[in-house]
Amino acid sequence: MAENKQEWYVLRAISGKEAKVKEVLDAAIRNTDIGNFVSQVLIPTEKVYTTRNGKKVLKERTLYSGYVFVKAQLTGEVIYELRNTTNVIDFLRGREKGSKPVPLRESEVMKMLGTADDMRQPQASSADDYVVGEVVKVNAGAFSGFSGVIKEVINDKKKIKVEVKIFGRPTDVELENSQVERE
Q1: Span 126-182: which CATH code?
Q2: pTM
Q3: Fold classified for 7-124
Q4: CB neighbour class for 119 (10 Å; exposed up to 12, middle 13-18, buried from 19)
Q5: 149-174 confidence digits (pLDDT tens)
Q6: How many CB atoms lie within 10 A of CB 16?
Q7: Cβ-based neighbour number of residue 146 at 10 Å
Q8: Which of 42, 73, 100, 125 qualifies as a cystine partner to 69, CB 3.0-4.6 A?
């Protein structure tokens, strides 16, 4: 038999159904002969903190919505099986009639796998990158409901100093990024 050379391919899936596609493919790998040709199914996710009802909540978010990454050797009926998996639209590249799907380049794979590895530790949402001079509204804590201007951003502590007006006087308040939102 020829050398088992597997490469990474991207399947387009119905957005929001990525986990279901992964579940179906993982079951097929375990229970059928497709496991000889498909070794890994991956949905890169990241853990982010979001604020819900004034509380910090750790949430897992899909990095590439609508895409499922598959490490496979496309021989025989493997292409047909992957294309016709429930909730799969098609391969990302090579959609011309009769053409074979194009694998990801090594640099793309390293970027995707590196990103997946980096996301193991929870991070604050990227929307929390505030700028000095920006107007924000306090949504949690003792100053909830107040609006103010950012005077200082402390990235390593994930805090900001905001100048709010209390009884008509400007007052500096140090808050966590999760306690404010953009206006």
Answers
A1: 2.30.30.30
A2: 0.60
A3: Alpha-Beta Plaits (3.30.70)
A4: middle
A5: 999 988 777 889 999 998 889 999 99
A6: 11
A7: 18
A8: 42
